[in-house]
Amino acid sequence: MFRLCFALLTMSAPMLNAADWVEFRGPDGTGQYVGPKLVTEWGTEKNVAWKAKVAGKGWSSPIVVKGKIIVTTAVPDDAKPKPNYSLRAVAFDAVSGKPAWDVELFAMDGVKSPGGHSKNSFASSTPVSDGERVFVHFGHLGTACLDLDGKIVWKVDSYKYAPVHGNGGSPILVGDSLVFSVDGSDQQYVAALDKTTGSEKWKTDRKSTAARRFSFTTPFALSIKGKTIIVSAASEFVAGYDAVDGKEIWRAKYPAGGYSLIARPIFVNGLLIIQTGYDTAHLFALDPTGTGDISAKIVWTTKKGAPHTPSPIALGDEVYTITDQGFLTCFDAKTGTVHWSERLKGKGYSASPIVADGKIYAISEDGVGTVVEAAKAFKVVAESELKERTFSTFAASDGGLFVRTETMLYRFQAK
Known about the structure:
Blueprint: E1 6-8, E2 32-33, E3 48-53, E4 63-65, E5 68-76, E6 85-93, E7 99-108, E8 128-129, E9 133-137, E10 143-147, E11 152-156, E12 172-174, E13 177-183, E14 188-194, E15 200-205, E16 220-224, E17 227-234, E18 237-242, E19 248-253, E20 266-268, E21 271-275, E22 283-286, E23 292-293, E24 298-302, E25 313-315, E26 318-322, E27 327-332, E28 338-343, E29 354-356, E30 359-363, E31 368-373, E32 380-385, E33 395-397, E34 400-404, E35 408-412
Parallel strand pairs: 2-29, 19-23
Antiparallel strand pairs: 1-16, 3-35, 4-5, 5-6, 6-7, 8-9, 9-10, 10-11, 12-13, 13-14, 14-15, 16-17, 17-18, 18-19, 20-21, 21-22, 22-24, 25-26, 26-27, 27-28, 29-30, 30-31, 31-32, 33-34, 34-35
């Protein structure tokens, strides 16, 4: 059925280390870890290679670049109900956990700036790196580029919009472009900046007619027949944009609407797997070929196992999702057939799962970790507990599992 040449686009920069975890959900944005085996059990004192305190609050995931772990955070200046915040990028040594640098990029006025959601932060977007520079994004508050020593290369704060519940989507690198989605209540567009200078390369209005237009998704890049397409999900539709000039190539309407999208799409065996957000989440598979309205190319759709927040994961011919309530479900990627659906321990799930050594790694909002076999039969491998809140997705590199909690950054590894 799918005979066209598809390829998943990853960053082509040759300077990247094979072990680097350079963006939200890893080197290709799909949560796949390849390398020395990760531990399957961890805790505040179990398999801890190191732990480091992170000031402020932020739910951005860690990235790993050339021996450094980098996160963003928002540090309040006092304990007032609406304090001012220092928006920062912070780096740690990957081997020792010692602080490497800590740089303020923007200052946020707590009174004038829009508020967020109780599950969000002012530093929820995960950084991305090309191996020479690090790009950080604070949504309507600004976007910046630093070198690996923490020196600021450029900053822009001109992409203002009216956020609902704050910002959440992360930027991606596509060739020489830094790309991000904007889906506020007043403006909805996709933008590409020159990664070297921060100047705008293109900006495409989504021309949304959705009743509720705000969303928080991270784009995804595909190469189809030699053309690079940026897939970006929005309220009520998903669209593919030409990476060169930003022109819309196609769009597909959701089977039953949807807004406030958070999850990032994935690409499995010629199909995009997409979640539709609120109020009732659906999961559907789309053949992303063609132009114009390709809504008729939706192959299957289901409500069962469809999350609002965590992104899906795939291995082989199976797709795995975990709902915000903790139901882990295994689907056949081609048909949507459910192999199993089981409830994991823990209260609430926001972090996206990853796959490592044929296993699914998941963690709940209250810090309960579960490792499950990635197979057509459900089997729990191990369970762990950190006893601290987390909404941040795992990072993994060189045998180390990196977990960010409300106050700490951990590296877990067998001794």
